[in-house]
Amino acid sequence: MTTAEKVGQLVQTGPSIVGAFGVSFEELLNMVFDGRISDEEFQRMMSESGQDYHEEILRQGGIGSYNGVTDPEVIRKLQRIATEETRMGIPLLFGSDVIHGHRTVYPIPLAESCAWDPQLWEKTARMAAKEASRDGITMTFAPMVDVAKDARWGRISEGAGEDSFLQSVFGAAKVRGFQQDDLRKPGTIVSCVKHFAAYGACEGGRDYNHVELSGERLYEEYLPPFAACIKAGARAVMPAFNDINGIPCTVSRKLLRDILRKELGFTGVTVSDSNAIAECVDHGAARDMAEAAKKALEAGVDIDMSSGVYAAQLTDLVEEGVIEKAVLDEAVREVLRVKYELGLFEQPYRFCSPEESPEKENRALCLESALKSMVLLKNNGLLPLQKNVKVGLIGSLAESRADMLGAWALGGRANDCISLKDALEEAGLPFVRIESDLSEVEDCDVILLAAGETKEMSGEAASRAVISLSQEEKGLIRALRESGKPIILILFNGRPLAISDAAPDADAIVEAWHCGCESGHALVKLLYGDRNFSGHLTTSFPNASGQCPVYYNHLNTGRPAGRGKFTCKYLDVETEPLFPFGFGLSYTEFEEEALEVQAENDILSVRWTVVNTGKRDGVYTAQLYVRDKTGVRACPVLELKAFSQVEIAAGKREEICFELPVQSLARYENDAWTIHHGTYEIFGGESSKKLIRAETEV
Ligand code: NOJ
Q1: In the predicted model, what is the mean pLDDT of residues 381-397?
Q2: Per-residue pLDDT at 42
Q3: Are strands 679-687 and 618-628 parallel, antiparallel or unpaired?
Q4: 141 lines ligand 1 (CB under 6 A)
Q5: 268, 230, 14: which is closest to 143 by C-alpha?
Q6: Residue-wise pLDDT tens digits, 410-442
Q7: DSSP secondary structure, 634-645, as one string
Q8: N or C, which end of the chain has less CB nearby within 10 Å?
Q9: How would you classify the pairing of strands 304-305 and 269-270?
């Protein structure tokens, strides 16, 4: 291969829009985001516009992969050019953000994590991979396994929440679902795990922001989910946009070579985030594009997504000897290896075979995931509803189909979604849609109020400083309260919301998230008790925006929050979160008894008994936490170490058993993992705030 052909393998590009609408494409995107044009208008404009796929550059061997091309016909055409009209005939990769479904959209990852069900997480990824591969996509930029403790960060919606262990289990399940155990199996796609690393620790929860992080926290909290995904076989990793302690991840040799490849044993391909190599100049970490290209490649970024910097700079830099040829060769080898592993050299079109659509059967899985993702946050006995009560349905989100898709549902279609109103209608349940005349509530028995966020209010570039309900929504709740009718608050949102001012006015609160195509069906089944709730939060809900970040596994101070004045707290906000990590109600109740721990042969055997004390069968989400009290170093007040779920019939009891390797208590200190020997507290329960405990020596 010539140097230029090698560089071409590292170039990932997307289609450019031809024929303008009088504004640039970026401006057009801004217009969708700020609501000047609707999603539908945008889609129409895009479908009417021409797309430039840079075919001439492709013919010259200047492109190795595309992102953002999802039309199987176009993919076939480009693949044909790559394999039949270029000198080397190397097939292309096609990447896309298949984050929570493709055509059939399941709940956003933050919601789905509330199911605490690794098998479900794997199944939905499998379903997405099948649909995406049928459309020609060979790589998904997922899962996002960024531990996210600050609800102001819009991208909290894209991962499994605030806990590193949960994020690890979630991420590994997704990788298995996307890739299976062999990329040559039908319907698999490469999983590109992101964003490496610590993107979720961005200062103030502001997207793309600087990250200041100690080595201990990086290793103990932010790297383990990546380690788990790599162990599960992930063949691609995306370096994060952010810097850590001043070094952008995109040019961090320590991160991308020493940690990712040497320590975590990653052998796949790295794909920069979009335009991130060029942005190293704005970071102040490269003087110009040439230096950005050199630093990124030498740091270990194989594929340049969308910045054009590798395309413009690398050939000259290698030919002039500024970059060693071996460094280029190594990157090219990573790209070719993944193409080979996918079987593309033998079957370049195996990913575009639009056979009969399996979307119908996929909806059943979507429904199941939505049922398990929604969380009952408050219930004063109003729920479940009787099927004859007359409901007053209020709030625009109650009939929005598009918003059920949530952030990053590129392949999804609003009209495939069932809104709450659709589902009530379909089930023939008595309700009135109340638009503006609130006096209509007089004729209703109960109010269903949908509030929260549209899909644009979370996801990338959607950080918010104030994460409460809007003033209008708050006013509405107060006005409705005066009617004296019971209120069920349904939250549709992509992040925890600070609703302590509205919560007391609601008789019941359901966290319905953005749960995809089957949102309305799932909600109606849960509200009317055809199905019991089983979801539990994977991120803490603050009382007020100013309480962010609030998370369960914080370190204690010398002055833990308490009644005394001189303790670690705010004067004007509760010290505890409004709803804690792990929390979720159901239509039954569980009580824990007699937690026991035995330490033997480097295993902690933990068991406790749970009794379903209510009148309905239910799912118990067993959560095992530890606290390191050895006194070597201040450690989190709680750390989740294991979880499982068990169905328990009304009145019955079950034994919960975990075998925890002592190794999982290791801490990262002085560049090594060590176990603190001494006393540990062990906790069991179904919420980080409702636990029974015992102590053990390790
Ligand atoms: C930017 C986002 O940070 C990343 O997560 C995504 O995969 C790429 N854009 C491609 O869309």
Answers
A1: 97
A2: 82
A3: antiparallel
A4: yes
A5: 230
A6: 989 999 999 999 999 999 999 999 998 999 999
A7: --BS-EEEEEEE
A8: N
A9: unpaired
Of 97, 117, 273, 416, the catalytic one is 273
Distance CA 615, CA 595 (A): 24
The yes-or-no verdict on residue 580 having pLDDT over 90 is yes
Q: Report the residue among 97, 207, 408 best suited for mutation to probe ligand 1: largest number of ligand atoms under 8 A from its CB.
A: 97
Q: Please state the length of the chain.
A: 698
pLDDT of residue 357: 62
Q: What percent of the chain has pLDDT over 70?
A: 99
pLDDT digits (tens, 9 = 90+) for 76-134: 999 999 999 999 999 999 999 999 999 999 999 999 999 999 999 999 999 999 999 99
Cα separation, 589 vs 82, whole angstroms: 60
Q: How far is the CA of 95 from the centre of ligand 1 (A)?
A: 10
Nearest CA to ligand 1 atom 3: 273
Q: How far is CA 571 from CA 204, 211, 524, 559, 575, in A?
A: 20, 28, 40, 15, 9
What's the gap in Å between 92 CA and the centre of ligand 1?
A: 19
Q: How far out from the chain centre does Cα 539 lie?
A: 12
Ligand 1: which atom is nearest the Cα of residue 306?
10
Q: Confirm or reject: Cβ of 273 under 6 Å from ligand 1.
A: yes
Protein residue with its CA nearest to atom 7 in ligand 1: 141
Annotated catalytic, 273? yes
Instruction: Name the β-bridge partners of 475.
Output: none
Which residue from 77, 71, 75, 53 is spatially nearest to 63, judged by alpha carbons?
53
* DSSP for residue 385: P
Q: For the segment 546-578, what is each residue's pLDDT rounded down to a tens digit?
A: 999 999 999 999 999 998 999 999 999 999 999
Q: Collect all residues with Cβ–Cβ distance below 8 Å to 239 and sequence separation of at least 6.
A: 195, 196, 249, 250, 252, 255, 256, 270, 272, 273, 276, 301
Mean pLDDT of 140-166: 98
Taking the C-alpha atoms of residue 227 and residue 211, their distance in angstroms, rounded to an integer, is 20
Question: Amino acid identity of 682?
Answer: I
Residue 20 identity: A
Structure tokens at 681: 């507290």
Please give the mean pLDDT across all residues of the chain.
96
Atom of ligand 1 nearest to the CA of 192: 7
